[in-house]
Design goal:
Structural class: alpha+beta
Largest sheet: 4 strands, antiparallel
Shape: elongated
Strand content: 5-15%
Distance between the termini: 81 Å
Order of helices and strands: HHHHHHHHHEEHEE
Length: 247
């Protein structure tokens, strides 16, 4: 029977003595491939053992499913590849179905994608005398939406980027079914927005966008001219000059 001293010596030897095993040419080729990438044999063996342990630690249910299908896919690697592709397809399909449902609701039911603040603004506008839309217009969240969709800080945005972000998001939200942007000159744009509402609706968005483009939060000074019609809003927006950075 081994003494405690002998067992300790065996353990120390196993931790410091390299493991020499005879491997197939196929395994040797795999080792050489990863050695060429700068990885050591000890690293490769460690990673392989970790992966082996992870697979062998799978629940009996998952292990049974792997056993059931691995012959069909020849190798476990092929099985895992197909499983991941199927998962990705399923996740994208669910997202695609959600998007299709929203597009149908927007087109067939004329639904709008309205945030809480905008919803309350429109309620206020509906209850406000037609000649007094200033209050709901000033509760303007357009800049937050623009920063979200562009992913840029306000000082990095150009006038064109702001207008194109409005075009994209205001159509997605179904506030307008059509937005046309024409560049008239350097930093001057004509924007036409069409909807199925009335002139009061056009007046609301005219004031809303004037509030946005004349805002002190923008890094440049603009001039805005516009006309509101029954189902159309027309805007001409021009950048006058870049504001100086305030320290």
């Amino acid at each position: 029977m081994s003494t405690k001293k002998e067992k300790l010596e065996d353990k120390q030897n196993s931790e410091t003595t390299p493991i020499y095993v005879k491997v197939s040419n196929e395994t040797r080729d795999i080792i050489d491939k990863y050695k060429d990438e700068g990885k050591t044999i000890s690293y490769i063996i460690g990673e392989a053992i970790d992966l082996y342990d992870s697979i062998k630690s799978l629940s009996p249910e998952i292990a049974g499913i792997i056993e059931k299908y691995k012959n069909k896919y020849k190798t476990e690697t092929k099985l895992f590849e197909n499983a991941i592709k199927l998962l990705d397809k399923h996740e994208n399909l669910e997202r695609s179905e959600d998007i299709d449902l929203w597009c149908r609701a927007r087109d067939e039911l004329q639904m709008m994608l309205i945030g809480k603040t905008t919803f309350n603004q429109l309620l206020t506008a509906a209850e406000t005398p037609e000649e007094s839309l200033d209050k709901p217009m000033k509760r303007n969240i357009a800049l937050g939406v623009i920063l979200w969709v562009t992913g840029k800080p306000i000082n990095a945005l150009s006038l064109e980027e702001i207008i194109q972000a409005i075009k994209k998001m205001w159509i997605v939200a179904n506030y307008f079914y059509f937005v046309d942007v024409k560049k008239l000159a350097n930093d001057q744009y004509h924007v036409v927005c069409k909807h199925h509402e009335n002139k009061r609706y056009s007046n609301y968005w005219l004031g809303y966008f004037k509030e946005l483009f004349l805002s002190n939060d923008l890094p440049f000074k603009c001039s805005v001219e516009g006309q509101a019609f029954d189902e159309t809003l027309s805007l001409t927006i021009k950048k006058l000059f870049q504001k100086k950075n305030e320290k």
